[in-house]
Amino acid sequence: TKDKKGAAAGAEIVFEDEFGFSYAEPVSFTWAPKGKTPQLKRITKFRRETSTMAGLAISGKIYKRHFDGLINAEKLLVGLERFERYIKGPFISIWDRSRTHQVNRVKASLEKHPNIHVECLPAYAPELYPEEYCHGNVKRRMKNAILHSKIEIRSSLDQGFARLLKRPDILLSCFQHAGLKLNRLW
Questions:
Q1: Average pLDDT, 10 consecutive residues per value, the chain (186 residues)
Q2: Are 100 and 70 within 8 A, CB to CB?
Q3: How far is CA 17 from the centre of its chain?
Q4: pLDDT for res 122
Q5: Three-state SS string across the chain, please?
Q6: 27: nearest Cα among 178, 119, 143, 128
Q7: pTM of the predicted protein model
């Protein structure tokens, strides 16, 4: 059955967020021979070389779409359509109130997609987003990596998400850290 907003009972629940990665990511502590400070050479100073739209579902699945540069309304809609193709049924996307999500074009497009229902959380509350912990785990593993192209960045991100898919315990902990009382992934 559908409620008045079009969300179907039994729909997949997906926590969606966008994040970026550049060649100028902060470095972390590492080991080096005594007296030899490690030197990491960065290629550019662009704020965001590539962005990823990722969704962590309570089923334990991860949906993602990479983009060049920042994610705008047009790219957000492309990502949502990709999620819709892979989920193959109704889903509820839970996201923040970023400007990109609030654009009239996004709202109008969602009216044409009855399988996508959106719920908003506060504008900036990363501690409430399980997906924030998920992509944070992936990005932490990439610290100090010297990546020479967008292809290498995306490949490294894909490997990180694939690693998490094999670790449902870590995915479950992402939900638990966000304060959601899940005992298991569906």
A1: 51 92 62 68 59 94 94 94 92 90 90 92 80 92 80 92 95 91 79
A2: no
A3: 4
A4: 77
A5: CECCCCCECCCEEEEEEEEEECCCCCCCCCCCCCCCCCCCCCCCCCCCCEEEEEEEECCCCEEEEEEECCCCHHHHHHHHHHHHHHHCCCEEEEECCCHHHHCHHHHHHHHCCCCEEEEECCCCCHHHCHHHHHHHHHHHHCCCCCCCCHHHHHHHHHHHHHHHHCCHHHHHHHHHHCCCCCCCCC
A6: 143
A7: 0.82
Matching residue, tokens 């990005």: 139
What are 146's two structure tokens?
Answer: 């010297």
Directed axis angle between helix 150-165 and helix 168-177, to 10°? 90
Write down the pLDDT at residue 1. Answer: 31
